[in-house]
Each structure stands twice: as C-alpha cells, then as structure tokens.
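Fold this sequence, please.
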Amino acid sequence: MTKNLAFTGLLRLVQDVSYIKLPCIGRNESGEISAKYLSTGTDELSKLRSDLIKTAVVNFKPDLLLVDKKPYGLQGELKPTLDYLKTRLPETKLVLLLRDILDSPEITIGEWHKYGYYDALQWHYDRVLIVGMSEVFDVTQEYQFPPSVCHKSHFCGYIRRDYGHKSRRLLRQELQIKPDEHLVLVTPGGGGDGYRLIDTYLTGLSHLPSQHSIKSLIISGPEMPLFHRQKLYRKGEQYPKVKICEFSDDITSYMDAADAIVSMGGYNTICEILSLSKRAVIVPRIEPVQEQWIRAERMANLGLFKTIHPDYLTSENLLNAVLDQLSSKPNHLPPVSRLDLDALPRIAEDIFTLLHSSATRLVSKKPVAFPHILSTHRA
C-alpha cells in the first residue's frame, strides 16, 4: 500500500499489510499543487513519488494494483508503472477506484480528454469500481464513459462506517449532556478551509432562543491554520456550552453521540453521517471543484439531510437549519434505507472474482497463492 497521508501513524494495520509513505502533496484553495512538507519543486516531487511507486511494483510484483481516482495518478506519476506492468507483468490486474462524484460533468469530461484518462481505462484497466450509486449520480453517463469502459465499470454502493470505540451513552456522560439538552457536533473535516463554517455557527449561537438547550462540540481539524484556530478558541470562550478541540481519531463515536451534525460535504464525512443515520446540515465546499456541492444537493433532494450553499451561508440560516433538524421527531430518521452502503464487501467480492478468473487460467501451471495487492491512495 502506498499512501499520500500526513497522519500515517494513525493507520490501524492488520497482519500482512504495510505501507510505503509517499511524500505529501498539498493543494491551495485554487487547486494548485505543491510539496506539502519537503522543500522541493513540484516536478522533482512528482518524479520522486513516481520512482517510489514503480520501485514498489517492480519488487513486490503485485497480483493486483488498485489505483485511487486518477488513472495516471497525480501529474502522470503512474505512467511509468503502468507501462512497466503492460510489458513486464501483464498478468497483474489493474483496478481503478472512483468516488461517487469527481467534479461537474463539463470540467471532468474536459480533463479526462486532456489527460488521456479514457484511453487509460480502455487499454490499461481491467475494472472500474465506483463507490457510489447510479441513482444518486451515474458516473458512466454523466462523464460520458465509452461503451468499452462502461462494460468494465461496476457501482459498488457507498462505504458503510463502523461505530466508534465509545458508546453514545458513555460519551454523553463524559460531555455532561443533560437529558433535556441536545448535542451538536460541528466538524469541517481536515479543517483547512473550515474556519468560516465554525465562525458562522458560533455567531448563530448568540441568537439561540432561550427555550433551546444546546451543547456544541466543535472539532476544528488538524489542518486548520493556527491563527484561525486561536481566533475560534477565543470566540468559543464566550459560550459556556461550547467545547472546541483540534482533532479526534474516533470521530464516529462523537457523531453517534450527537443529536445533529454540522459539516462540509466530503465523501468520508457523508458516509459516516449516513452510516449512523444522523440528522445533519451540510455546507459543502464549492471550490476548487464542485464535487461536494453536487453530492450534497443530490442527497438533500433525497431527504437525507439539509444543505446550504456557501453563497447563502449566514448565521441565521445555519442556526435555523440546525434547529429544524433538532426539532424532527425522534422516530423520523433520514431515509438511509434508500442507499446501498455495502461497498466494502462488494469491492472484496469483485476483486476476488477478478483474481480468481485469472488464477483458474494459470492453475495448471502453478499453485494459486494468496494474492499480492498493491494500492495507491491519493488523499
């Protein structure tokens, strides 16, 4: 497994699984990439990452390579590896894993033609696994996949998240939530651009009607700039029922403990909210890509949660949306049953089928061993 994560130490690995840490790439608000920590140029960093990936493949000789999001990787870093596999390890299966939504159809189609991604899927990849549902967003149609690519594309559903390590009852006791109080969790994910969401929420609390008793837990995220985090801490001190922390490695426990969640619209956060059947107000990111807004709008239309476009985000609108979610009847949960949340077992089954079909052709030549799978993950 090769990873582009800054917090690899937080990964809980199982037996016979390890990772190779790729140097991190960061993005600014306009989408431009640069080295996140190393003092090196983008071209040098891409070459380093590309060399590391190819070296891992050459030495590991995987039965299957699982690629996340971009068929050629960031800035084409996977091209040398794919060419090597084509000529030297043609038996290795290639699988592309796509989220439910990448960007608007217009932008995505243009980029995929520009970078040759459609050709890459036709000539290099054996499967395209989509962790979403065509009923929410049909990637194959919206992004105009060629028939040959549609044939190898499978919708797997969304990813179900497990419950956290602490029970709802225990956490509400630790947070001293009274029986007549509601708990609202505010989390902008990594937090790099989450300041406005949290600041707007805190401003809204000053207009909270007296008949509502709300405690708020705000998790700012480890990527929020220090000066923004300090401003929020100072502002939060005005509210005795507000607790602000930077990070939790058990976010699903706090989500389960909450009565409502305020968040942005990233894929992982949405899957956590839906897995726990939580009421939520989603304020999606709209730049540099439209992914979060499209997801939030489509799912809000299904009645899964409330959403507010950032252009219409005010303290009054946000507070009213939160109170509306809290006033829902206890037995009126979001209709999550409409969604397929069984992506993980379906991905495992698809990969097993793909490898098994290959192994049966080779069974007369050598015994079938447990497969070697290499995953390239782009955060």
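The longest strand covers residues 93-99. Residues 2-158+341-376 form a domain with the Rossmann fold fold (CATH 3.40.50).
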